[in-house]
Amino acid sequence: MTINFSSNFAKNIQNDAKRNDIRETVSALCVAAKQISHICARGPLESGLGDTTGGANSDGDAQKALDVRSDEIVTAALETAPVAYYASEEQDDVVTLDARKPLAVASDPLDGSSNIDTNVSIGTIFSIFTANEDALSSFLRAGSEQICGGFFVYGPQTTLVITAGDGTETYVLDPDTGDFELAIANMKITAASTEYAINASNHHHWEPPVRAYMEDCLAGADGPLGEKYNMRWVGSLVADANRILSRGGLFMYPGDDREGYQAGRLRILYEANPVAFVIEQAGGLATDGTQRIMDLSVDSLHQRVPFVFGSKKPVQMVADYHDEK
Ligand code: FDP
Fold first, then answer.
1. pLDDT tens readout for residues 295-324
2. pLDDT exceeds cutoff 90 at 48
3. Residue 313: predicted pLDDT
4. CB atoms < 10 A from the CB of 235, how many?
5. Whose CA is nearest to atom 13 of ligand 1?
6. Can you say whether the dihedral through the CA atoms of 65, 70, 71, 77 is positive or negative?
7. How far is Cα 293 from Cα 268, in angstroms, rounded to an integer?
8. What is the spatial distance between Cα 161 and Cα 183, in angstroms, rounded to a whole number?
9. Selection from 303, 249, 304, 241 nearest residue 276 by Cα
10. Ligand 1 centre from 236 Cα, in Å?
11. Average pLDDT, the chain
12. C-alpha 86 to ligand 1 mean position (Å)
């Protein structure tokens, strides 16, 4: 046993066989996460985790040793699960595991690569779909077709944040037993918050509505928003998302005018859709600035998307700034 599922998990899925397939696949991902978490905990005792391999993924990001190792670990774990196809941020194309199996999994096996050597939280993100006949079409579909999604955080605790479309739950890896145990049954994001997360060093590259909104936040209590704001930016999507799930807030990685960043930095399939799924199921919102992330079409495996998510009120305010423009 690797995870003690709550009685509520996947309850909304009426088909018993499908529910079992999802549970088996999540269990396999938990096995992978335990291995990755163990490697992270050893940190510098494992040689060269943050060293670049000389390779680059499809997005042109330099691959680090732990990116590659995590991808191998996730692949091996999914080979034991009812998974036909695996799409990874670290691979150019979809990997066929066994086309007769019922599910398809997309994953960023190691999110937050730039924090690997800094003892800061990093993680693994995943999305589960019903497999189609064809490998590619199993993934080129809207995020609203996910049947399960979530992420692991390798931090002070190793946690799993997950939804199967009926609320968001958090499990903690108990170091005493080696199993993931339910810690928070029905996560709820506060509707309002004055805390935001954005890489402010890109300020002069942002599109005008984002810049206008951020300038109004920075103006504080005397500015048009009439409130003092606070900033937190971990620089690992999973850690920023986990904090927002815990105490509210706003995350933005907008498009900007740097080369290759017109649609932001984050990938819709591996990052935005699964995070959007858990955020919505916890009562928050996730958009590309104006439109719901999970309604957007996914036309290529490594497609990027501007990403805005968190507490309802600030996400709505960002949309209002876009509309005013
Ligand atoms: P990383 O490149 O370190 O893996 O998607 C990748 C990601 O980190 C996110 O986890 C994080 O939110 C973002 O990129 C950080 O981007 P910046 O380097 O521009 O801050």
1. 999 999 999 999 999 999 999 999 999 998
2. no
3. 98
4. 15
5. 235
6. positive
7. 8
8. 10
9. 241
10. 6
11. 96
12. 22
